[in-house]
Design a protein that fits this description.
There is one protein chain. Helix 8 packs antiparallel against helix 11. The chain has a three-stranded antiparallel sheet. The protein is built from eleven helices and ten strands. It is elongated and about 90 Å long. 49% of the residues lie in helices and 22% in strands. It folds into three domains: 46 residues, Ubiquitin-associated (UBA) domain (Helicase, Ruva Protein, domain 3, Orthogonal Bundle), CATH 1.10.8.10; 135 residues, Elongation factor Ts, dimerisation domain (Tetrahydropterin Synthase, Chain A, 2-Layer Sandwich); 67 residues, GTP Cyclohydrolase I, Chain A, domain 1.
Length: 277
């Protein structure tokens, strides 16, 4: 049967699929819209099956803050070209909005949420059919506190959320942006020394001991040398002990106290880098 341009446009408005795909689906379905929609969904499933083993390390990070809570998600695809596609960006923004409104417990719960009557996981499969690449939602995190500031690095490849408590009316917006940009640039693994996992502490001490012994240092001072190297590790890798990149005469912790008061503190942060997980 003849398929009209009007019918093709109608199916495209429903599914978001390309014009040629919509025309083919309607032709295969003899003009039946429900059957055509099912045809397009099966196409997505076929693409998903074929590309399941592909690396999807490109994409975009999406962030949102409502003042005392923030959400970061990472939506992945195979190529940077697709990441810039309007349909891909719209899908990511819609998922982010749903995550903000529904506060799911974890990534799998987010994928199971209903969006326009179907689970997000199904929308990801549909997107694979339309775009022809593997599409995956790989990261979902929430950060909460008295004040939460977000930062999305140009290019949407790194997103940061940092929570502050006890700011007492301080200029947390500007200070928070400074700290978020610090986290973006310097990638700390923890807020302070006590937040570093014990396994990492032991590993760094062991490395320090081995290096000291290889350098021929006396056995009785090996532990002292290792502790010195650990303290250097803390300075380089924990947020509050890092040099503040905008003023290296002070640490990040000193900058926060100076700017927001002695009681102010960073209570949590998340740094999501595209493809890093």
């Amino acid at each position: 049967m003849a398929i009209s341009a009007k019918d093709v446009a109608k199916l495209r408005s429903i599914t978001g699929a390309g014009m040629m795909d919509c025309k083919k689906a309607l032709t295969e379905a003899n003009g039946d819209f429900d059957a055509a929609i099912d045809f397009l969904r099966k196409k997505g499933q076929k693409v998903a099956g074929k590309r399941a083993d592909r690396d999807a390390k490109e994409g975009s990070v999406f962030v949102h803050s409502n003042g005392d809570a923030a959400v970061i998600i990472e939506l992945n695809c195979e190529t940077d070209f697709v990441a810039k596609n309007d349909d891909f960006q719209e899908l990511g923004q819609n998922i982010l909005n749903l995550a903000v409104n529904e506060s799911p417990a974890d990534l799998e719960a987010l994928k199971g949420l209903s969006m326009d009557g179907r689970a997000i996981a199904d929308h990801l499969v549909d997107a694979m059919g339309k775009i022809g690449e593997k599409i995956d939602l790989s990261v979902y995190v929430r950060v909460s506190g008295d004040s939460v500031i977000t930062y999305l690095h140009p290019g949407a490849r790194i997103g940061v959320a940092v929570a502050f408590d006890n700011v007492n009316g301080g200029d947390v917006a500007n200070v928070g942006k400074d700290i978020a940009m610090q986290i973006t640039a310097m990638s700390p693994i923890a807020i302070d020394k006590d937040d570093v996992p014990e396994a990492i502490v032991e590993k760094e001490l062991q490395i320090g001991r081995e290096q000291a012994l290889e350098e021929g240092k006396p056995a009785q001072i090996v532990d002292k040398i290792a502790m010195g190297k650990l303290n250097k590790y803390y300075k380089e890798n924990t947020l509050l002990n890092q040099e503040f990149v905008k003023d290296t005469s002070m640490t990040v912790g000193q900058y926060i106290k100076k700017s927001l008061g002695a009681d102010a503190k960073v209570s949590a942060f998340k740094r999501i880098q595209l493809g890093a997980h």
